[in-house]
Amino acid sequence: MNKTEHQFSGWQRGSAGVLEEILPLLPANIRRLVISLDLKLKEKVEEVRIRQGKPLSLSLAEGDILISREGRPARQDSDAYLVTPADMESLINLLSGSSLYALEEELRSGFITLPGGHRAGITGKAVLDGGKVKTLKYLSCCNIRVSREIYGAASEVLPQIINKKCGGIYHTLLLSPPRCGKTTILRDLIRQISSGAPAYGLPGLTVGLVDERSEIAGCCRGIPQRDVGIRTDVLDGCPKAEGMMMLLRSMGPQVIATDEIGRREDADALEEVLNAGVKILTTAHGSSLAELAERPVFSNLIRTKTFERIIILGRSRGVGTIEDIIDGKSLRSLGVKK
Amino acid sequence: MIKLLGSVLIVAASGLGGIAVAGNYSRRPKELKSIRSALQMLETEISYGAAHLQEALSMVAERCDQDVACIFSRTAAELSARTGLTAAQAWEKSIQSYYKESALKAQDFSILRNLGASLGISDRTDQIKHLRLAMEQIGSENLRAEEEAARNVKLWSYLGFLSGFLAVIILY
């Protein structure tokens, strides 16, 4: 199998600048510590984890580190800066734009999408109403995931999924374990398909995007914070199956894109979309075709050869490595260029 | 001649002083009323519109009495500047600067300050409770302020001139 290397870290431009975007959302004490970090370290931050009474920690690709009271990686756990209740209160205030009352829906789903498309996962005590989570209170842990948009992340994949005969794209599935760059590549694919890629003779197509977890377009109050192209209609925070049908009925898309299908109703909705002659662009968790075929929801989709292209991603040589591209009809590898 | 001119000046000065004090008494209930109705608007925005605090404050600033609009517009501006201030801090800053130029008393200021501490940090029902409490407190301060105004406005306007005359008579 040919393999090609796509190390995202090599493509990131001004990555430390991305971290700057979340600085105004951090409480003053923590902001000061993050600012004083080494620039190289700042570029690599994937998550900022803030837990009340626990050390402030940053997640990097190679593992997590604790931050000392001087704003440097802590050598021992005892040197680490401990997050105070005042920090937590101020953090929640800043993350919610002092409008916690307007975020009940978001708290129920466990995260808030921030300006810039970053996400803050929040946990606390769940308030139940009739056995269902109504909202959260006593918020005590927060994980800010830094979202990095990488232009051109999908440039290797794109030519493989263009159907030159009909001037559109193939039904495509991106397959990878978590944290291998699936969403980043999907986002860039959507952008290029929607805005058009003249280099490959692809005119811009109307894309309907169902962004259930607000991860792809990173919508903040309905407005995409990430570039998802000029012909993309985004349905933010909507359940995938329902959202695909809504888009199909109302927006007349040529391509419907969505993230992480896995439930039975998602597969049913996909079939509905296929029957309407709309192309599908989606992703799933998994590391190989064989593994995917064992899952009941996908076995049928693979048996009926629904997907025309299956792209397998991994991180064997860094995040976003394209491990293989498979033709869905013949189930043979098309290989990837070096 | 100089004596006469001096007397006129004394009467005018103390008269104007009296009018200024009376003016303060009559301004306070007006301001309290405006603040109360602005808070009512804020409650509507929060409970029915579910607007974010910054938007809700700007909307209130546009529609409420222009004398008190600056409290809301300044807080909204601070929040939108994203300087890392919380709503409570931004509110505190803006009521501080408003308080200096207003006819409000310390107790009115502390009602507003207490409200600021809870602004935006809890769920909708809780926010409404805090706003209603503040409105109620302002309402009762307003009643007291109106009574004071009824008693004191006339008193001070007369008192100013009369004390001026008294001084003139004694000095003559």
From TrEMBL, chain A:
GO terms for molecular function: ATP binding. SMART domains: AAA. It holds the Pfam family Spore_III_AA. Keywords: ATP-binding, Nucleotide-binding. Residues 168-317 form the AAA+ ATPase domain. NCBIfam families: spore_III_AA. PANTHER family: KINASE-RELATED, P-LOOP CONTAINING NUCLEOSIDE TRIPHOSPHATE HYDROLASES SUPERFAMILY PROTEIN. This is AAA+ ATPase domain-containing protein. It comes from Pelotomaculum propionicicum.
Automatic annotation (TrEMBL), chain B:
Pfam families: Spore_III_AB. Keywords: Membrane, Transmembrane, Transmembrane helix. The chain crosses the membrane at residues 155-171. The keyword Transmembrane applies. NCBIfam families: spore_III_AB. This is Stage III sporulation protein AB. It comes from Pelotomaculum propionicicum. The lineage of its organism: Bacteria, Bacillati, Bacillota, Clostridia, Eubacteriales.
